[in-house]
Design a protein that fits this description.
By secondary structure, the protein is α/β, with parallel strands linked by helices. It folds into three domains: about 10-190, P-loop containing nucleotide triphosphate hydrolases (Rossmann fold), CATH 3.40.50.300; about 190-265, Helicase, Ruva Protein, domain 3, CATH 1.10.8; about 275-330. The chain has 14 helices and eleven strands. The strands form four sheets. A five-stranded parallel beta sheet has the order 2-3-6-1-7. A two-stranded antiparallel sheet has the order 4-5. Strands 8-9 form a two-stranded parallel sheet. Strand 10 and strand 11 (about 260-265) form a beta hairpin. It is globular, with a radius of gyration of 24 Å.
């Protein structure tokens, strides 16, 4: 599964794991995943909702020596304090009123593999304390059990908020944050991935055609413009849901999304032709936004460096960035 250079997984390996894209920031995230997949250290995956954090976690698992063992996902927001230890560590028969038989916890279920803790920011203070104690030596005691048990697993955590900021507000344990963030992966938002949005949309449409055994559908050129202009607050998940809906409800084999009114299914009648001037202006705007997104991704939002690379006046480039509603701070990588 190594690339042509022999270092790290190939692009095809990531595609098979449903991680595909060509933008610089996304390729950098894949590079980091490839580098750390074989390590057993705890990993923290950061990124907005819908950016593919669980896909990244699964890639870390299936590219590691633990791939033949279980991958167990846990929604931390759904772990009740009253059943916390039982859910994580299991219980013995008779440990409490309803414990009619012994049951293995999530930690035991993930033995040899990976325990994926999603939405760790939602953990209660008590849950944070219990987990911190477990992370210190991977030892635990099932509820009602008389002896400690050891575990051999990898912990991967994920969050869609800034845990460091929560720690500063005393809403998240700083010592637990340090435990989680031995290694970090940041999944970039879709709006900062340039033409990847079109690549992903076409991928979803091909998958849907196979899933429903229907003829393939393609994107109308106006749909490409709409996809590139949309801000995608729900990221790849929002895009996937949109393609699913439009695939099922669009008549014919062409999907058209209206920029002004949001998603609009293709009509059976002829599509109005734009004037040359309007079509040219739209094409230029699409190119400018896509180019600037790629440029700012490569320069981590540094306008001065971007101006030198593009050979454009810094002031003029800054005005163009503002014109298209791009925010440089979104492209700035966090210091390691």
């Amino acid at each position: 599964m190594q690339g042509a250079s022999g270092f790290g997984p190939s692009a095809d390996a990531f595609v098979k794991l449903n991680l595909l894209g060509e933008s610089p920031r996304f390729r950098e995230a894949l590079r980091v995943i490839g580098r750390i997949a074989c390590a057993d250290a705890t990993v923290l995956i950061e990124g907005e909702t819908g950016t593919g954090k669980e896909l990244a976690a699964r890639a870390l698992h299936y590219l590691s020596r633990r791939s033949e063992f279980p991958f167990i996902p846990v929604n931390c927001g759904a772990l009740p304090d009253t059943l916390l230890e039982s859910e994580l560590f299991g219980h013995e028969r008779g440990a409490f009123t309803d414990a009619r038989r012994a049951r293995a916890g999530l930690v035991a279920q993930a033995e040899g593999g990976t325990l994926f803790l999603d939405e760790v920011e939602a953990m209660t203070p008590r849950a944070q304390g219990v987990l911190l104690r477990f992370l210190e030596d991977h030892m635990y005691r099932p509820v009602g059990g008389g002896s400690l048990a050891g575990s051999d697993l990898r912990i991967i955590a994920a969050t869609n908020v800034d845990l460091a900021e929560l720690a500063r507000q005393n809403r998240f344990r700083r010592d637990l944050l340090f435990r989680f963030s031995t290694l970090c992966v940041t999944m970039p938002p879709l709006r900062e991935r340039g033409h990847d949005v079109v690549l992903l949309a076409e991928h979803f449409l091909r998958r849907l055609a196979a899933q429903y055994a229907r003829p393939p559908k393609r994107l109308h050129p106006d749909s490409v413009a709409w996809l590139l202009a949309h801000d995608w607050p729900g990221n790849a998940r929002e895009l996937e849901n949109l393609m699913h809906r439009e695939f099922l409800l669009t008549d014919g084999n062409t999907i058209r999304l209206a920029a002004a009114d949001g998603p609009a299914r293709a009509q059976s009648g002829p599509v109005p032709v734009q004037t040359f001037k309007c079509a040219k202006a739209r094409a230029i705007a699409q190119f400018e936004k896509a180019y600037l997104g790629e440029l700012l991704s490569k320069t981590s939002g540094n306008i001065s460096v971007a101006a030198r690379i593009s050979q454009k006046d810094r002031s003029a480039l800054n005005k163009l960035v503002k014109k298209h509603g791009l925010v440089c701070e979104r492209f700035r990588t966090r210091p390691e």
